[in-house]
Amino acid sequence: MFARFIGIDYSGAKGPQDPxxxxxxxxxxxxxxxxxxxxxxxRHWSRAMLAEWLASTLSDSPPTLVGLxxxxxxxxxxxxxxxxxxxxxxxxxxAHAMPTHQLSIEELxxxxxxxxxxxxxxxxxxxxxxxxxxxxxxxxxxxxxxxTYAGLPWLALLRERLGKRAFFWxxxxxxxxDRGVHVFCEVYPALYKRRYRKLGLGPDAxxxxxxxxxxxxxxxxxxxxxxxxxxLTDEERAQAQLEGWILGVR
Length: 250
Known about the structure:
By secondary structure, the protein is α/β, with parallel strands linked by helices. It has helices at 47-59, 76-81, 87-97, 105-110, 124-127, 145-162, 203-220, 224-227, 234-243; strands at residues 4-9, 24-29, 35-36, 64-68, 166-168, 182-186. It has one domain (4-243). The protein is 36% helix and 11% strand. Strands 3-2-1-4-6-5 form a six-stranded mixed beta sheet. The radius of gyration is 17 Å and the shape is globular. 42% of the residues are buried. The model has no long low-confidence stretch (mean pLDDT 93).
């Protein structure tokens, strides 16, 4: 299905234009090991720079599977409370209410503009795992809240820039098209990384490496397509198409 794989260990630290050591990017083709992709400018990626690179590199690339280590949406209850009907509407709502593509999480907290819900509120995919945290749990080990809040507006930008060449799973459907598109998925490296040796990489780099290695390996085993079809009821599928799903949870 895919000729290229990109794995990103994300970070919600600092501002959208600031270089962040915790953002790491690895990529691999069908043949060959994952390799680190260095920042376009300076030593470290910023979130704005990363979005710019993804839009550019994917505009002229063979079909690519992109794994991003942050939540792609909020629980269904959030949709109901804010009268949101689908994921594109959620993205527009979030970017307006929480412009993390313009301001840092800390600036929004200082302005008392941080959208918050019950810290224990889980999406269905999080309830199906042993260790995944709520997207509303801030300031704790293993939390993805900052990364999720910081990353959501850039998903909207990529969706706009790439148009029909981008497929955001599972919001655009559960079965990616056979060819010609780049598929964006939410991933959770803790699901896969205990099976791999660290190879001397730091923790953030290792997580990005693991994302690519696992996706590439699953395609090589002809098992990847099965992960796009978790065993959900029709009601659960409808819920997950609002909340998102973690590739690898089934």
